Amino acid sequence: MSQWIRVASLDEINDEDVTRFDHGAKSFAIYRLGSRVYASDGLCTHEQAHLADGFLFEHEIECPKHNGRFDIRDGRAVRVPACVDMRIYPTKIEDGDIFIEI
To answer: What is the CATH number of the domain that holds 86?
Structure first.
């Protein structure tokens, strides 16, 4: 069964930035591009590095370990050595707060 979890307020995440969010034993990466928010698994599928330590280039997150890249809109691995897509999660903003569905 899925549920909506509050992550943070929108103004806690800088525009064009990524932040780490841990819930239970799982880590997520939360991305903000203007008024849009995206969410993915927090670890790179290649070497398990935290994506929140990486760099956001428009709609791509670059892993800090080996520079593989993923499209944050659909989770596609778009640059090697990342070759396994990452999981993405639905997001919504309500009353200035960010929620992800897990």
So the answer is: 2.102.10.10
